[in-house]
């Protein structure tokens, strides 16, 4: 009887471990889907908008007949290239979440020009045509730091695209300040700000305020 009871208990514990592993795998899959939807949406929207502008320009009666239209198409092509490059980098990093869960996440640090490698890329995706506000970059020229450029771009991109949702006029400013040996990046805008009652949710994933 004792042996049978111990065997039943062992089977119960084994079943509980299997269920817990399945639940963890399901949660990781949900996290991955949310991550992709959240991170890919903004650069994909920018690429699609730029593609639409190019399509309209090429379907005109005399396409690309002026220097202005040629420059506009070149700018749109740059937006498409930069946005797709950003998406490609993101897709290459989708295993990061699984690595983080198993404490294997690696930060790929390299010398990074804050303006060229980070802020200008953010401008390309966020600052689409006909915005009623001005996009500004405030950063010392030639500022290079040792960091993971993709992850830093993701952070600044998310903050800047959040600003874009709530700014109807004025500006969105991204930049960096240097004090002693510390570099601080920031995103500032002329929007209404975060309501006091929503600030406790500031670092909760995928939360936003539409107030």
CATH architectural group of the largest domain? Orthogonal Bundle
Integer tally of domains? 2
Please trace the helix and strand order, writing H or E for each element: HHHEHEEHEE
Strand content: 15-25%
Task: Indicate the low-confidence ranges by residue numbers.
Answer: none
What class would the helix/strand composition place it in? Answer: alpha+beta
Specify the number of helices: 5
Query: What is the 3D shape?
Result: elongated
**Rg, Cα atoms, Å:** 23 Å
Helix content class = 55-70%
Termini separation comes to: 65 Å
Give a count of the beta strands, DSSP E runs of length 2 or more: 5
Rounded mean pLDDT is: 81
Spatial order of the strands forming the largest sheet: 2-4-5
CATH class of the largest domain: Mainly Alpha
- Report the sheet with the most strands, covering strand number, pairing sense and barrel closure: 3 strands, mixed
What is the name of the CATH topology of the largest domain?
Helix Hairpins
GO molecular function, one term: phosphorelay sensor kinase activity
Domain Histidine kinase: 35-211
Protein name: histidine kinase
Enzyme class: transferase
């Amino acid at each position: 009887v004792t042996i049978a009871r111990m065997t039943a208990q062992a089977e119960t514990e084994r079943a509980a471990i299997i269920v817990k592993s399945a639940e963890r795998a399901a949660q990781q899959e949900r996290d991955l889907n949310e991550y992709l939807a959240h991170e890919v949406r903004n650069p994909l929207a920018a690429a699609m908008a730029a593609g639409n502008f190019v399509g309209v320009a090429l379907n005109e009666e005399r396409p690309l007949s002026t220097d202005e239209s040629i420059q506009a198409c070149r700018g749109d092509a740059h937006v498409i290239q930069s946005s797709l490059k950003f998406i490609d980098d993101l897709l290459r990093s989708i295993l990061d979440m699984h690595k983080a869960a198993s404490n294997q996440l690696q930060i790929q640090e390299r010398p990074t020009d804050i303006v060229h490698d980070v802020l200008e890329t953010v401008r390309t995706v966020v600052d689409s045509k006909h915005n009623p506000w001005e996009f500004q970059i405030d950063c010392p020229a030639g500022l290079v730091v040792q960091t993971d450029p993709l992850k830093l771009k993701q952070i600044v991109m998310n903050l800047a695209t959040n600003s874009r949702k709530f700014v109807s006029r004025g500006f969105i400013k991204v930049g960096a300040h240097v004090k002693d040996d510390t570099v601080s990046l920031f995103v500032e805008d002329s929007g209404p700000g975060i309501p006091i009652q929503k600030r406790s949710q500031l670092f909760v994933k995928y939360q936003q305020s539409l107030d």
